[in-house]
TrEMBL record:
It comes from the Eukaryota. It holds the Pfam family LRR_At1g61320_AtMIF1. Residues 403-481 form the FBD domain. Gene3D superfamilies: 1.20.1280.50, Ribonuclease Inhibitor. InterPro entries: F-box-like_dom_sf (IPR036047), F-box_AtFBL13-like (IPR053781), F-box_dom (IPR001810), F-box_SCFL_complex_component (IPR053197), FBD (IPR006566), LRR_At1g61320_AtMIF1 (IPR055357), LRR_dom_sf (IPR032675). This is F-box protein At5g03100-like. Coiled coil: none annotated.
Amino acid sequence: MEMQRKIMARGDRDRLGDLPDAIILYILSILPEGKEVVRTSVLSQRWRFLWKSVAVSLNFGVLDYSYDERTKKKILAFVASINRELHYWRSCEKIKAFRVFPVKYKEYLVKDYDFWVHFAMKVANVEEFTLKFCIINFPDCAYKFPQFTFKNTLLRNLVLGSCQINPSGSVTWTSLVSLSIGHLKLTDNMLEKILSGCPNLESLELDSVLGISRLEISSVKLRKLIILNDEIDCYCQWHDEDTHPLEIFAPYIQNLVLSGFLYNEIRLQQSNVASLATAVLHFNVDFIEFEDEEEKLEEEFRYLEELLLSVGHVKNLELGPLCIECFPILELRGWRSPPSSCKFLKLNAALKHLDFAGIYSFLQSSSDLETLVIDWNNHNPIDQLLSYTREVEQSRRFEAHKNCSLLHLKTIKIINFHGKLIGNDLVLRLVKYLLENATVLEKLVIVAKYEGSDVPRDYVEVEQEFLSFPRSSLHASVVFCY
């Protein structure tokens, strides 16, 4: 109000206040938090009630503290504050999204959880709802998602974490386009019932979901499937259960992401994912749970072979560090990377000696490749993998691959370029290899990563060295981005 008086005293016009309501409402609608929208009501008399007409998003994040019984008082205060705010928001004409992340499921808070769900589904009629418990009691103790929620024709996006989903009747989520469920048990029949009630579903995410052995997706609209398991504890519980590998039948899926401690639990055949255009494969291995490490590695190698064959037809492929590191080991055993039809390839690599041999091997089998992206990360190779091969062997295999022509490769991008570069023969060799073998290359872009405001001296020296490398393409340019 003080600012408003100063403006009026100077005779200046309130240009923002002169805008039509429709434009002001649009500006308010792009504010990320509902509380920020409400704060604008103090700007002027005209703005006092405008916030009620804005479609807002309500977000209630977890408090920043570790959970123990001593924090029960804080948790109750946090829950009470949410309940007070929801009563306040009843006067809002449109609540677009409601996202809440409780610390951990506690039975004495069930009535509060029920109130939040009822508010979202019945009072606010939100399009997007998230209820995700941050500390997982998995899978024995979870919040039971109320039965009334399974009949909802307005919901478009639903995210549930550590909730029991057990509809007693049919599911009617006719407007739902995105569903993410995690850290729960399901049966094949239960999942089939849920999917049959989502005729317009476009994206499905299953995060550490136990109990299912067959995932059949017949809808032509469901184009994206994400299967995750980033919790080692969940992996161990998975194997404690009497479960079978998950077979996927999804002929219309176009985008597939497999990530985490999945091991050989996913069964995929190319004929069952014939429409697949994009695949992302990121795997982790933890050997603590296995007495015979070598036997476990053998299983992983076979599993990786199967997966690469099943996604050999995709046009866009992204591979995690472990996948790349396994290539040279498989090659030592007489395996050859299966032909790949990908035109876009992203490799998340640590650029250690295992990675380079893997990169060379896969590039040789990707004759249609047009765009290559290498994301240089800080992943440390697994000791058990390093014992299979030595740097001398990698150098020998590099010589075998060095005359491979990359006939269609036009764009190369190396991002997060970092670390000690002077004397890093592996990195220099890779860049030189790419420039010498990409015969139609148009651009090599290197995005450097460093701390501070000044570009490190060795980065500049390496840039000059790269620029001096011979290029098989007369039109190739080398661009450094600092």
